[in-house]
Each structure stands twice: as C-alpha cells, then as structure tokens.
Amino acid sequence: MIDNKLIFDNQKQYFNSQATKSTDFRLRALKALKSAILDKEPQIVDALRKDLNKSEFDTFSTEIGILLEEISYVTKRLQKWARPRKVTTALTHFGTKGLQYPEPYGVVLIVAPWNYPFQLAISPLIGAIAAGNCAVIKPSELTPNTSAVIASLISSIYDEEYVAVVEGAVETSTSLLTLPFDYIFFTGSVGVGKVVMEAAAKHLTPLTLELGGKSPCIVHHDADLRLAAKRIAWGKFLNAGQTCIAPDYIYVQQTVHDTFISYLKEAIHTLYSDNALANEDYVRIVAKRHFERLLDFLQDGDIIEGGRYDATTLKIQPTLLTNITWHDKVMQEEIFGPILPILSYSSLEEVIHTVQSKPHPLALYLFSTDNKAVNKVIHQVEFGGGCINDVIYHIATPYLPFGGKGSSGMGAYHGKASFDTFTHYKSVLKQTNYFDIPFRYPNNKFGLRILKMLFK
Ligand code: NAD
Description:
The protein is an alpha/beta fold.
C-alpha cells in the first residue's frame, strides 16, 4: 500500500532542501527524461498497442515525438527563462529596483487522462521540472500498460522524493487530492474537473484545468473542399476520435454540403481503406463502457458512412451522420469517438449565433479562404484555441500556448507557457539606503501636494 502522505511529505522536505532549484539540476533532469524516453521507446510503443491498439506511427507522432521536441525547446531556453527579470521603476519609486524572480511552486500534482496517456502525463511534467518543482503523477487507470511504463520509466531516473508516480483509479486520485499540493495540473473531463477544483479550493491550491467539450468545425462555401475533407478526416478519426480537440461536429454551408460529403467519404476510404475494422492499425475504443456509450449515438439521424462495429475488438468504423439536430443525444455531450455528425447552415451568422449559445469549446476550426469570414469567427466566437483551414495542428507547436476557456478549462501550457504555469513570479522591490524620499510620510509639509502631482 503506497502511502501518499509520506511521498508528499518527503517531496516537501526535498523541495525545501533547495535541491531542485538550480538550472543545472533541472537541465540534468530533463536530459535524463529525454534519454529514458528514447531508451524505453519500444516499451512505450508496445504499451500503447496493448491499451489502445495505437500503431507505432501514431505513438511516435502523437505521444513520443511531441515530447522530445518539447524537451529540446524548453532545454534550449531554460537558462534565459529562469533568470530574474528587472522591471521598470515608477517615478514615485525613484532609487529602487523592481525584480521578478521566477520561483517554482513546490510540490505539484499532475493527474492525466487515458486518450494520449503517455504524452499527457509527461508533457506537464516537463514544465514542472523546468520550473524547479517536485511532482507526483497520477496516470489513468484505463490504460494500465502505459501507466506501468510511466511508473517504471520515472522510477528508473528519479528518486521518489523528487518525482513519483502513483498508479490507481478514482480512489487514488481522491486520496491525493486531500493533500495540500502547491499546484494541481489536471487533464480530463469537465465533470471531474469540477471535483478537482472543489478539492483544490479546500487548500486554496492554484490549478490548471485542461478539459474537453464539443469542438465545432465550420466548412464555409469558399473553402478548398477536397483539402478540408482530407484534413478533417485525419483529425477526426486520429486515435478513433478520442482526442480532446477532435472536431466534434461539422457545420457545412448548404451550397457545398453534398460535394463536401463526397470528398469526406473519399478521404476516409483513402486513410482507412473500405473497412477500417479490418485495418490492423485502426485505434480501438479504450473500454467497453465508452464503446457502449458511443453505440448509442448510432441511433441518431442517418448513417451515410460507416456505422459498423466489432464488440470483440472494441472498434467502430469512421462514421458520418446527417439529419442531426441539437436535440439528438449525439449533440448533448462530447462525442469522443469516431462518429461525426454533419449539420448544415445557410449564413455564417447563424453558426456564430449557435456556437455562442453553447459552452465555450476547447477548439474551433474554420475552413474558409475569405479573410472577412475568418476574422468574424475569430473575434465573435469564444473558444480555447484552434486552426483556420486545419484541425488539431495548433496543439503540436511549442510556440502556441494550449488551453481552454470557460467550461473547456483554465490556464494554458506548452513551451514557455508550461514554464510559466508551474512558476510563481515573486515580485521584489529593492530599496536604496542612500536617500529617503520624504513625501511618503504624512508629516511632510509638501507631501500631499507632491503626491497629487505624481499620481494622475
Ligand atoms: P476523466 O476526467 O474521467 O479522468 C481523468 C483523470 O481523473 C484520470 O486519471 C482519472 O483516474 C481521474 N479521475 C476520474 N474520476 C475522478 C474523480 N471522481 N475524482 C478524482 N479523479 C478522478 O477523463 P478521461 O476519461 O480520462 O479523459 C477524457 C476527457 O479528458 C475528455 O473530456 C477529453 O476532452 C478530456 N481531455 C482534455 C485534454 C486537454 O488537453 N484539454 C486532453 C485529453 C483529454
């Protein structure tokens, strides 16, 4: 039986020893992480094949490669980010120096989901280490092979008092959440995000919530329809639709509806052959419970592509649904599977209005070659982030912070944003002793007059 409290107390003690704070230490830790990922690549690939039937290509491109790139990016810039920053001095503060010291929070908790179970546990860890923290990682129990690989990889390079992995399900999470962590980084569903935030509130622990929701994909009449269909088919059916920023549903302009659908069908066949169920690299649904939840959506509207499934392998064909309304079950919650409802619209205002009336999505995608339409959507609709003329791609660059808004989450990470997320910027003013400006004191004769001149 793992004693979470003991791990936490030991990490607190280790953090207070100052061991994790030098940039040399952080850089060595990141280097060790990169080497361990490279060494254990075959075990990571094998675990993801077992947990989700991910191909080596998918595992490298969406789990391993992205982490290697993130470590390189952070490592190159860390010395600069970690330096105290001098800020401008206000006229009223003549003689002083203002500094911001980037300081680690302390001991942080990272709770990860199952859909990209390796990447989403390790990516926040890179930020936590870069900022100088100790960390406890709780991987998802729904991908047990990957969870075991994470545990063995981390214990092979770090002492538990620095970075620990605590494997387990809800009870484990619940028990960890009773501890007064200095920061919590949670990736998962909206419902559990609320539970985590409530637990964090008990200790006033700051947190990042990387959640989900229904991410719209709008295809305007002037889009490059064939290319749009190809990119959407890739992004939607990648990981069998089990991607937080997968296009959840499509809004296509009526005038191009039929043409777009024919391109979309063509793209699905090109990517997965005529029967994805027989494609040995096609990802399966993570668990029976999720598989059955998805089958329910097949009752909605008309199936115009796919719709077949295999209960023994937990695979569902890439499926397109039309004749869908917002009253259908498939439009009531995040789909998180290879089912894509297609709705149509006549004017862009109509879609903007509909999306505005829903919770803020994590991502939004617009396919259009009209700058006016693009600017209108970017400025009038609220969403975490997204792409114009693409899907998913914005998540894979360390230059763009990634995060949600409203019910799709709070905070952002990747690249510098990860460092900032796990950093407390301590503001310090250094005062001079050479002179003492008299007008701050209430007994100064001209004090009030000078203050009135300065504060305006
Ligand atoms: P989940 O919320 O069920 O679980 C996430 C983690 O929380 C797991 O480690 C789980 O063990 C733990 N957990 C579950 N119930 C808990 C509870 N009651 N109390 C405390 N901890 C609990 O999410 P999931 O099913 O693993 O992942 C799918 C969801 O995550 C989708 O909604 C998806 O959109 C979202 N997601 C978001 C991002 C992002 O970056 N924004 C990335 C991936 C997934």
